[in-house]
Amino acid sequence: MKIKLDIFEQQIENEAESYQPILPPKRHQIESLLKRAQKAHNINLRINKDELNLLKQRAEKEGLPYQTLLSSILHKYLTNQLIESDGVVRLLDMMKKKA
Fold first, then answer.
1. What average pLDDT is seen over the chain?
2. What percent of the chain has pLDDT over 90?
3. How many other CB atoms are found less than 10 A from the CB of residue 59?
4. Which of 11, 60, 93, 99 has the fewest CB atoms in 10 Å of its CB?
């Protein structure tokens, strides 16, 4: 009995010969990334109502859900990628003084 393939499945079937296996180091790297991505945990966070409203407004302005924005902020902070605006201003002032 033949199984009817949809267009996507048929394309895979037609191109099967051109696929090449992923070498073990690359495969391990991909699997590690997938495992880390799947390890998201839910947390409860108490936040001031006004700050939550500001967060939601900012997220809407950025075009993101507010939980995604908050997660992004935490990630940037933890990986030292979050830049404070007053630090940038001080750096620019120091650069002007040196020029």
1. 87
2. 29
3. 17
4. 99
Q: Give the Cα separation of 72 and 75 in Å (integer).
A: 5
The alpha carbon of residue 60 and the mean position of all alpha carbons in its chain are separated, in whole angstroms, by: 17
Distance CA 39, CA 27 (A): 19
Domains identified in the chain, total number: 1
Q: What is the pLDDT of residue 54?
A: 96
Q: How far is CA 85 from CA 8, 11, 82, 89, 90, in A?
A: 48, 50, 10, 6, 9
Whole-Å CA distances, 9 to 5, 6, 15, 17: 6, 5, 10, 14
With respect to residue 29, please indicate whether it lies within any of the assigned structural domains.
no
Task: Read off the pLDDT of residues 25-73 as tens digits, 9 standing for 90 and up.
Answer: 888 988 888 888 777 788 899 999 999 999 999 999 999 999 999 999 9
Which residues 6+ apart lie within 8 Å of 66 measured at CB? 52, 55, 56, 58, 59, 60
